[in-house]
Design goal:
With 502 residues, the chain is α+β, with helices and mostly antiparallel strands. It has helices at residues 6-37, 39-42, 49-62, 64-85, 88-94, 99-141, 222-225, 270-299, 301-306, 336-341, 345-411, 418-443, 448-452, 454-471, 479-501; strands at 153-154, 160-168, 173-181, 190-201, 207-220, 235-248. The longest helix has 67 residues, at 345-411.
C-alpha cells in the first residue's frame, strides 16, 4: 500500500528539523549579502525603523529562490548522512527496505515544496521585487542625514561644500564657517566666510537656513567678464554683519509610486510575461520586415524593379542573376573589373568615392536599424528569462534533493562539518553555471531556454548518477575503498617487478 508508514513519518520529521534550520541559516547569509550590496542606500539616510523593516522584509522574500534549493540540498545531505552514520540506513536495508522506499515520503514532500515554490515565484516574488526596488529607488533619492563634521568638508548638499572648524553644542553655534557654492558651475563659484553661524531646517523640512555673522562673500563673475576684452576676471565682494542663506535640502522620505515598475519583467507573473512576449515579438517582427523592405527598396533598386515591395519579405537571401537587370542590358554580360579599368584616373577616383559613400550610407542605415531593434529585442529576451526562471526554481529543488539524499547515503557523515563543505561546493558550481547561462541568454549569445536551463541540464545527470550509485551501495567516498585500490595496485606492481627479475 502507498499509505503513510512510520518510516515515512520518521524520515520526514528528521528531514524537517534539518530543513528549517538550514533554510533560516541560508536566508540569513543571503540577506546579509544582499544588504551589503545596498548598504549605501541605508547608511546615513535617517530613515525610520518602519522603512528599514519593510526593506528587510521584502529583501527576505527576494532571497527565497536562492535559499530554498540550498536548504534542501544541505538538509537532505545531513539527514541521510546522519542516518548512515548511526547505521540506521544499514538496518533498514537489512530489513529489505530499499533506498527509494526510504526516500518515498520525502519525494512527495519535496514535490509539494516544488509546486509551492512555483506559486511563490509566480505570485509573491513579483510583488516583493516590485515593492523592494521601488523602495530602493526611493532611498537612493533621499538626502543623507544632515551632520556637518568638524575640521573637514561636508559634501552632502548637492552643489555645495561646507567647512566648520569647530562647533559649540551648548549654544548651537558653528565657528569659522565656510560655504563653497558650485551650483552655478565651477567658473561661477562663490565663497562665503563667517566667524560664526547657526543652521536650522525650515518648517516644511525642505530647506536649510544658514544664519551667518561677521563675514564676507566673494562671487566669481566670469560670465559678465566675457563681455569685455580684458584678461582680468571681475568678481563681487560683500562684507556683512548678518546674512541668511537658504539651501535646498529635502529631508523627507518621498516614496516613488510602485506603478513605475508595473511594466518591468520583475513584477509580472507567467501570464503577464507570456502576453508581453507575444505582443513585443510581433512588434520586433513587423519592425524587422519594414526595415528589410526599406533597405532593399532604397539600396537595391534593381531588385525593386523586378519584384514588388510586398513580395520582398518572402524572398530568399539569394537573388538570381536573371533578376538583376539594368535599363539596357543584364549586368551579367559585363565584367566589373574590365569596366573599371577602362575608366580614366579621375573617373576611377569618382567611382571609388561613390562606392565608398554608398557603402558607408548602407552601413549607417544598418547600424540605425540595429539600434531601433535593440530595445524591443532586449525586452523580449528579459521577459523570456523571467518566464523560464519561474520554472527553474521548482526544478532546482528536485535536482538538489536527488543530489543531497543519495550523496548523504554514500558519504554517511552527519552534522555540520563535511556536509556543509560538500553543499557549498555544489551550490557554488550551480551558481556559476546558472549565472553563466543567464548572461549568455541576456546578451543573446545563446537561446534563452538554453541559458536558463543550463544549470539544470548539468546537475540533473549528476543527481541520476549519485542516485544510481547510492542504490547500488557505491563506496567511492569512503577512504578505505581507495586504500584498498592503492594496496592492490601496489601488490600488482610488486609481483610484476619480482617476475621481471626472475
Amino acid at each position: 500500500m502507498l499509505g503513510i508508514k512510520k518510516i515515512d513519518t520518521y524520515i520526514v520529521k528528521s528531514f524537517l528539523a534539518y530543513f528549517f534550520m538550514t533554510f533560516f541559516i541560508s536566508m540569513l547569509i543571503l540577506l546579509m549579502q544582499f544588504t551589503w550590496k545596498h548598504m549605501a542606500e541605508l547608511i546615513g539616510k535617517g530613515v525610520s525603523w518602519g522603512v528599514l523593516a519593510e526593506f528587510f522584509w521584502y529583501a527576505t522574500l527576494q532571497t527565497v529562490p536562492m535559499a530554498l534549493p540550498l536548504a534542501i540540498l544541505l538538509a537532505a545531505l545531513m539527514n541521510f548522512g546522519n542516518l548512515g552514520e548511526h547505521f540506521e540506513l544499514t538496518a533498514m536495508k537489512s530489513a529489505g527496505i530499499s533506498l527509494f522506499r526510504m526516500m518515498r515520503g520525502l519525494i512527495v514532500f519535496i514535490s509539494i515544496i516544488s509546486v509551492l515554490a512555483f506559486f511563490f515565484s509566480n505570485n509573491v516574488l513579483p510583488m516583493a521585487q516590485q515593492k523592494l526596488w521601488t523602495l530602493i529607488f526611493s532611498l537612493r533619492q533621499k538626502s543623507p542625514e544632515f551632520d556637518i563634521p568638524e575640521g573637514e568638508f561636508y559634501t552632502g548638499i548637492n552643489g555645495y561644500n561646507l567647512y566648520v572648524r569647530s562647533k559649540d553644542p551648548n549654544k548651537k553655534m558653528l565657528r569659522d564657517l565656510m560655504i563653497y557654492d558650485f551650483s552655478k558651475g565651477f567658473d561661477n563659484a562663490s565663497v562665503t566666510l563667517a566667524d560664526s553661524g547657526r543652521v536650522q531646517f525650515t518648517a516644511d523640512n525642505k530647506y536649510l537656513k544658514f544664519s551667518m555673522y561677521s563675514g564676507e562673500s566673494f562671487e566669481n563673475m566670469r560670465q559678465q567678464g566675457s563681455r569685455y576684452n580684458s584678461s582680468s576676471i571681475p568678481y563681487r565682494r560683500e562684507t556683512f554683519q548678518t546674512k541668511e542663506l537658504l539651501l535646498d535640502f529635502d529631508t523627507e522620505f518621498n516614496r516613488y509610486d510602485e506603478s513605475i515598475l508595473k511594466d518591468q519583467h520583475v513584477s509580472k507573473n507567467v501570464v503577464e510575461l507570456t502576453q508581453t512576449i507575444d505582443s513585443v515579438s510581433k512588434i520586433v517582427k513587423a519592425r524587422g520586415d519594414e526595415q528589410a523592405r526599406e533597405m532593399i527598396s532604397t539600396q537595391f533598386p534593381e531588385i525593386r524593379e523586378t519584384v514588388s515591395i510586398d513580395e520582398i519579405p518572402m524572398m530568399t537571401d539569394e537573388v538570381s542573376e536573371e533578376q538583376v537587370v539594368t535599363e539596357e542590358e543584364p549586368v551579367k554580360n559585363y565584367a566589373a573589373d574590365s569596366l573599371f579599368l577602362k575608366l580614366n584616373q579621375q573617373q576611377m577616383e569618382e567611382a571609388v568615392s561613390a562606392a565608398r559613400q554608398s557603402a558607408q550610407a548602407m552601413k549607417d542605415k544598418i547600424d540605425y536599424n540595429r539600434i531601433m531593434l535593440v530595445d524591443p529585442t532586449m525586452t523580449v529576451r528579459r521577459h523570456q528569462i523571467e518566464w523560464h526562471r519561474r520554472f527553474t526554481l521548482s526544478f532546482a529543488c528536485l535536482i538538489f534533493f536527488f543530489i543531497g539524499a543519495p550523496l548523504g547515503a554514500i558519504i554517511r557523515k552527519g552534522g555540520l562539518g563535511f556536509p556543509i563543505v560538500i553543499s557549498v561546493v555544489l551550490f557554488v558550481i550551480y551558481y556559476i553555471i546558472d549565472t553563466t547561462g543567464y548572461k549568455m541568454a541576456r546578451e543573446g549569445f545563446w537561446q534563452v531556454f538554453e541559458g536558463m536551463w543550463l544549470s539544470s541540464a548539468v546537475l540533473f545527470p549528476l543527481g541520476l548518477f549519485l542516485t544510481w550509485k547510492a542504490v547500488t551501495d557505491a563506496s567511492f567516498f569512503r577512504t578505505e575503498s581507495y586504500t584498498r585500490i592503492y594496496d592492490n595496485m601496489k601488490e600488482y606492481y610488486r609481483k610484476r617487478r619480482n617476475k621481471s627479475r626472475n
